[in-house]
Amino acid sequence: MPRASWSGVLRLSSCPIYLSPATTRAKPIRLHQVWRPAAAPEADEPDRDTPVTASSTPWRVQSEAAARADQSGVPTRIALRPHDPSTGEAIEKSRVVKGYEYDRGQFVTFAAEELKALDVESSKVIDLETFVPRGDIDPVYFDTLYYLYPDRPIAVEALRVIGAAMAEACVVGIGRLALSRRERIVLLEPRGSRMALFTLRAADEVRPRNSAAPSAISTWRWW
Predict the structure, then answer these.
(1) If we measure between CA atoms, which residue out of 14, 40, 29 comes closest to residue 125?
(2) How far is Cα 91 from Cα 103, in angstroms, rounded to an integer?
(3) What are phi and psi of 159, to 5 degrees?
(4) Is residue 221 part of a domain?
(5) Which of 7, 127, 128, 162 is the most exposed place for a label (fewest CB within 10 A)?
(6) What confidence tens digit (pLDDT) does each residue in 135-173 have?
(7) What is the distance between the alpha carbons of residues 203 and 137, in angstroms, rounded to a whole number?
(8) Domain membership flag for residue 176
(9) Rounded to whole angstroms, how far apart are CA atoms 111 and 88?
(10) Any domain includes 175
(11) How many folded domains does the chain comprise?
(12) What Rg do the C-alpha atoms of the chain give, in angstroms?
C-alpha cells in the first residue's frame, strides 16, 4: 500500500480516502559556508628556560581541537550570527522577527504568535464545488499530482462509480482542500480505474503569455 501523505473524506459522497504523492523530488545538493584556515608553520620547541606566555605562543592558549584545525588547514563549517548591518554589533536571536518586504526597504513584521494565528489547519474534507470539461483547465495551472485511494472497503465502490460517471461525462471535479496549512484549489479526475488529484496554482502564480522580456522575444524565429 502506498504511503499516505493525507487522509480525509471526499464531500461529494462522504467517501473516506487518502492521498499519496505521485512523484518524487531529487534531494537537492546543499552547500555550506566553510572556513579553510591556512596551515600554520611548524613552531620550534621553546627553550626549557624560556617562560611560556600567551603573547609569545598564542597557539598554546587555544583549545586542542582548534589548534589542530588551524595547523592542518582542515575546512570548518562557520556559524552565521545576526548582526546590525550598520554597526556590526551582534543581535540576540530573540530580537529577530519575520518580516515581509512590501516595498524596497519597507517591511511589515510579524510576531511568532501572529504567524501561528494565520496558519490554516489541514482539513479532513475535499469539497468538490463544480465539474468542468478537462480541456477548460490550462495545464500551466497544474502543480502537484497525487493519487487518490479508498481508505476503507466501503469507499471502493463509491470511488469507482464517481470515476466512471466523470469519465463518461468527460469532466473533472474542482474543489478546495486545506493541505500543509494552506488552502489549495484542486482538480480531481479519473485515471482508468483510479483517481488522481492535482493541486492547482493560483492566478497570481502564473505569468501571462506576453510577460517575456522584449530582448528574449527578439531572439526567437517564428515560422
Answers:
(1) 14
(2) 24
(3) -65, -35
(4) no
(5) 7
(6) 899 999 999 999 998 888 888 888 888 899 999 999 999
(7) 12
(8) yes
(9) 24
(10) yes
(11) 1
(12) 30
State the sign of the Cα–Cα–Cα–Cα dihedral 212, 217, 219, 223: positive
- How far is 44 from 57, CA to CA, in rounded Å? 11
The pLDDT assigned to 42 comes to: 60
CA distance 219 to 223: 13
Q: Does a structural domain hold residue 76?
A: no
Q: Give the 3-state secondary structure of residue 109.
A: strand
Instruction: From residue 160, give the alpha-carbon distance in Å to each of 62, 107, 164.
Output: 71, 51, 6
What are the pLDDT digits (tens) for 187-218? 999 988 789 999 999 888 988 877 555 454 44
* Cα separation values, 2 from 26, 123, 169, 210, Å: 19, 21, 29, 41
The one-letter amino acid code at 48 reads R
CB 188 within 8 A of CB 27: no
Cite the beta strand spans of 56-181 per DSSP E: 76-77, 98-103, 106-110, 125-133, 142-150, 171-179
Name the DSSP letter for residue 4: P
3-state secondary structure at position 61: helix
* Domain region containing 127: 7-22+119-204
- Grid coordinates given for 112: 511568532
This prediction's pTM: 0.56
**DSSP state at residue 151:** S
Residue type, 167: A
Q: Is the pLDDT of residue 1 over 70?
A: no
Segment 50-101, tens digit of pLDDT: 554 444 444 344 445 555 555 566 888 888 888 888 888 888 888 888 899 9
CA distance linking residue 144 with residue 23, whole number of Å: 8
